[in-house]
Amino acid sequence: MTTKLLPKLLAKSLQTTIVHTDYTAPGGFAAYPPAIHHASTVLFENVAAMRSGQWKDKTAYTYGLHGTPTTFTLEARLAEIEGGSHCLLAPSGLAAIAMVDFALLKTGDDVLLPDNVYNPNRELGRWLTNDFGITARYYDPLIGAGIADLIQPNTRLIWTEAPGSVSMEVPDLPAICAAAHARGVLVALDNTWSAGLALRGFELGVDIVMHALTKYQSGGSDVLMGALITRDRAVHDRLAMAHMRLGMGVSADDAYLVMRGLPTMKLRFEAHDAAARKVAAWLKSRPEITTVLHPAFEDCPGHAIWRRDFTGAGGLFSVIFDERYTEEQTDRFVDSLTLFGLGYSWGGANSLVMPYRMTAIRRNWQGRGVLVRFNIGLEEPDDLIADMAQALDRLN
Ligand SMILES: *Cc1c(COP(=O)(O)O)cnc(C)c1O
């Protein structure tokens, strides 16, 4: 697109010269980093181009909110990595989740969510139920083909998360997708845990893959962004309408930060995986810990499905302390860690820890011991283990 930006003025006042330049940088510049295009206003070549420009199929630029070369490039790269055809960016992972719900659900519809769903997605379900006349119902994440019994004539969407948040159960995606598709229901997968690297959602049958790019794609603990990837054009178009109507723009600088993280994502992911398995195996050997909720460990519900469907694991897992330890004691363990930050979100270089009160976020939580979640960063795993050992000594 060659845009005639600057009509040559015969005479310009100083103020107009300050606003308009006659300079155009020479073309032919090439470098690996993508260009960062900042724009609210996008300039059209002429009125005809303005009238015919289509934002929806990304053949033209119409407004900063609807895409720039920077955001189109990130979307194309993410679709390519996931094995999808289309991608839309959102200002956070949660915004991407909300975009799916607003695109696909209307009053009278029903949506199914796993009981271990990312908790803000559960909160969104509560809002849909209370204020929008949509029913959000929760299913056992290990339900598999049994989900068929929950599908109603008004069910439009099934959310899946592999593994689910905090308690880490691994769902049987092919079984859920088969039951859903037999009834014309779409399946969305929150694929954040393995960044689309160790679990190939489209190959298992899901219709929409969602990512919190905030995590491994960025890797820097410095940006919030989400993505929705699809193969089906009609599904993408519905999401794109919601994207436009809700004004889901992302900043060019943030899109750049995510693209800066992408080339090292797989190497970082593999390092997180190896370190997390080493730390988890050490925790498994400790008498203070009864259960290691890491999908690569037999303790984890759905471990056999992880072995069947995944090619690796993320750096995020949980453990359950022996029930003889009170929350006061396990809080002392968490506060005694020196290399683990206490904070939400994950996927960056720094290890993190977070204790959870499971009865507040699950319907029928049976575990009696305290659950603590770890994000294993890129530190030397032996140093993390030594830190955990000294913190476990403070339990008593
Ligand atoms: C972090 C996360 C999200 C939300 O991402 P944000 O960018 O923080 O909104 C969604 N799903 C899962 C599984 C997550 O871990």
UniProtKB/TrEMBL annotation:
<dbReference type="InterPro" id="IPR015424">
    <property type="entry name" value="PyrdxlP-dep_Trfase"/>
</dbReference>
<dbReference type="Pfam" id="PF01053">
    <property type="entry name" value="Cys_Met_Meta_PP"/>
</dbReference>
<dbReference type="InterPro" id="IPR015421">
    <property type="entry name" value="PyrdxlP-dep_Trfase_major"/>
</dbReference>
<keyword id="KW-0663">Pyridoxal phosphate</keyword>
<dbReference type="InterPro" id="IPR006233">
    <property type="entry name" value="Cys_b_lyase_bac"/>
</dbReference>
<keyword id="KW-0456">Lyase</keyword>
<dbReference type="InterPro" id="IPR000277">
    <property type="entry name" value="Cys/Met-Metab_PyrdxlP-dep_enz"/>
</dbReference>
<dbReference type="InterPro" id="IPR015422">
    <property type="entry name" value="PyrdxlP-dep_Trfase_small"/>
</dbReference>
<dbReference type="GO" id="GO:0047804">
    <property type="term" value="F:cysteine-S-conjugate beta-lyase activity"/>
</dbReference>
<comment type="similarity">
    <text>Belongs to the trans-sulfuration enzymes family.</text>
</comment>
<protein>
    <submittedName>
        <fullName>Cystathionine beta-lyase</fullName>
        <ecNumber>4.4.1.13</ecNumber>
    </submittedName>
</protein>
